[in-house]
Design brief:
The structure holds 2 protein chains of 2 kinds. By secondary structure, chain A is mainly alpha-helical. In chain B, the strands form 2 sheets. Chain B has a 6-stranded mixed beta sheet, sandwiched between helices. In chain B, strands 1, 2, 3, 5 and 6 form a 5-stranded antiparallel beta sheet that branches. Chain B starts with a strand and ends in a 5-residue tail after the last helix. Classes of the chains: A mainly alpha, B alpha/beta.
Chain lengths: 317, 255
């Protein structure tokens, strides 16, 4: 078990190294503005993908209203800095809290539903959030909230992403996380084993929503403006695509898919009319040949590489 | 000492009276069978006891307290664990994780300790893993702890389900057709195991079974259910010779 702690430190060290390298490349201008933008988007998409995976992939509650929580985080965060002139970190935390509280309030009644019914309910709720924001003049209504300072940079996004991934990874690899997974596997058996399924569904939903709020706040403070049109159900579907493409129940899968899709999006930016077509073809192809997603519910880790080398896959466990 | 007592327990599904006037009384340490023809209401009775269904009438007392109105997970936390007629494992998880989940409500570390991996997290996780492996050893499944549950052979899945239920550390274990789908040799082994776990874990066991060799061989007392009502109760010997039971199973004699 202590091996696990050591491995955590090792991954954290690798993250710092990655950060240093990318930051250096940005400083010396090897990575230009366009790619910085994409790296920031990748980070935000990773946060959104991994947090949605906690709800959809690990807990098995099919939610498709994630853009709504992102919107709440974006607007609450932006109000903190634009209207109340508070520091950025407060804006991020407030965005997380706002989205988390809303997630809790929405989760409590809707998580009684399951499967298709829950999907439709969350789809509707995502839209309700967007329409509500659209009709609040205080935050700019349909024209959006303008004049947001650009406080988000690579450093903020990177560390928020690392924090999110570690938070959710640690959560999943604990008794609480196992309880969430047991809900996905068999709700009746989970109840019979003493797992309060409602509590864990709501917990996963709240945590997922809160991290979507973090992503929203980062998003708002990168693009100077937040606009209700950025958070339509199309955005929710994009996020769902990341989760399904990477594999329901695989954190590393969501990370890979977020990177891949952001790059494909960027690469296709020159052909806007073909973008959705190619994007959709990719998804159809994947669903045909790999319906469980890129990684299924497996994780890529050091353990995985050990196995590739022919070592015992269990020796690190 | 009476561990479980139900009186006038009943449930209606619309106009159908699935179980009615069910009076069970089970003492600590007993091994009791619940038998009856198909559709007699045996599994419904289990679902009533474990909170899956709420009774429309009657009371259930467990360990001195009423457990009517509790949710299934609360009933389990009070000390009643069960297995299912159609196996309900966490089929995509490893054998070890299946057992670990049953320990879930004994874990004390909080969300914060989980996320920052401090305080009680590592000591408790280590203890949990150790306990779960010990448990698997008892059921001779420790060699397969990393296998995915759904890949186990049928008999081992049944064993794993019992192991998982026991890991929740119940006082009363409800087994719903534990021998279903087993061959005579496996059934015999199961009988030995049921006797053994009762002694080892100081358990009270109530089991539903169609396999009469198992019921008659292992149960000390039997309740016979037909059309949702208890038609006979007694030792295996008494039940075997009870004309009402014979009638329920084989029908009336031709005039």
């Amino acid at each position: 078990m202590r091996v696990k702690a050591k491995r955590d430190l090792l991954s954290l060290g690798a993250c710092l190294l990655l950060y240093a390298i990318i930051q250096l490349l940005i400083e010396v201008d090897v990575i230009g503005q366009f790619w910085v933008l994409n790296i920031v988007l990748i980070g935000i998409n990773i946060i959104l993908g991994v947090s949605l995976n906690l709800i959809n992939g690990f807990t098995g509650q099919f939610s498709i209203g994630h853009a709504g929580f992102m919107a709440v985080g974006a607007y609450v965060g932006a109000v903190m800095t634009v209207k109340l002139h508070l520091p950025f970190i407060v804006a991020i935390l407030a965005g997380a809290a706002g989205a988390g509280i809303l997630g809790f309030a929405i989760g409590l009644p809707t998580l009684r539903l399951s499967g298709d019914y829950l999907a439709i309910a969350t789809l509707g709720l995502g839209e309700i959030i967007r329409i509500t924001i659209l009709n609040i003049p205080y935050v700019g209504g349909a024209s959006g909230l303008m004049g947001i300072p650009r406080l988000t940079n690579f450093t903020w996004v990177f560390f928020a992403t690392v924090f999110t991934v570690f938070f959710i990874k640690n959560f999943i690899n604990s008794s609480h996380g196992r309880a969430c997974i047991s809900v996905r596997e068999n709700e009746i058996a989970a109840e019979a084993m003493g797992v309060d399924t409602t509590k864990y569904k709501v917990m996963a939903f709240t945590i997922g929503a809160a991290f979507a709020g973090v992503a929203g706040a980062l998003f708002a403070h990168y693009f100077y403006i937040v606009h209700p049109a950025s958070f339509t159900f199309m955005k929710s579907f994009d996020l769902l695509t990341i989760v399904v493409l990477g594999g329901l129940g695989s954190i590393t899968g969501s990370i890979t898919a977020a990177i891949l899709l952001t790059f494909v999006s960027a690469a296709l930016a020159g052909y806007p009319e073909m973008r959705m077509v190619i994007y959709s073809l990719m998804l159809i192809g994947l669903m045909l040949f790999r319906p469980q997603g890129l990684f299924g519910n497996k994780e890529i880790s050091l353990k995985f590489f050990n196995r590739l080398k022919g070592g015992s896959p269990r020796d690190a466990a | 000492m009476t561990l479980l007592k139900t009186s006038k327990l009943g449930i209606m599904f619309g106009g159908l009276r699935a179980v009615s006037n069910l009076n069970l009384e089970i003492s600590s340490g007993e091994l009791v069978g619940l038998i009856g023809p198909n559709g007699a209401g045996k599994t419904t009775a289990f679902n009533l006891l474990t909170g899956v269904y709420q009774p429309t009438e009657g009371t259930i007392e467990f360990d001195g307290d009423s457990i009517v109105g509790l949710k299934p997970y609360q009933v389990t936390q009070r000390g009643i664990a069960r297995t299912f007629q159609n196996i309900r494992l966490f089929s995509d998880l490893s054998v070890l994780d299946n057992v670990k989940i049953a320990y879930h409500f004994h874990v004390k570390y909080g969300l914060l300790e989980t996320v920052v991996r401090m305080g009680r997290y590592y000591p408790e996780e280590e203890e949990l893993e150790h306990k779960a492996i010990q448990f698997l050893k008892i059921f001779n499944l420790d060699g397969k702890k990393d296998e995915i549950a759904k890949n186990l052979p049928y008999g081992e899945q049944r064993r794993l389900e019992i192991a998982r239920a026991l890991a929740a550390q119940p006082k009363l274990l409800l087994l719903d057709e534990p021998a279903a789908g087993m061959n005579p040799q496996e059934t015999h082994q199961l009988m030995e195991m049921i006797r053994w776990i009762r002694k080892e874990f100081d358990l009270t066991i109530l089991l539903i079974e169609h396999d009469m060799s198992l019921v008659m061989g292992v149960c000390e007392r039997i309740y016979v259910l037909d059309y949702g009502m208890v038609i006979a109760t007694g030792t295996p010997q008494e039940i075997k010779n009870n004309p009402k039971v014979i009638e329920a199973y084989l029908g009336e004699e031709v005039q």
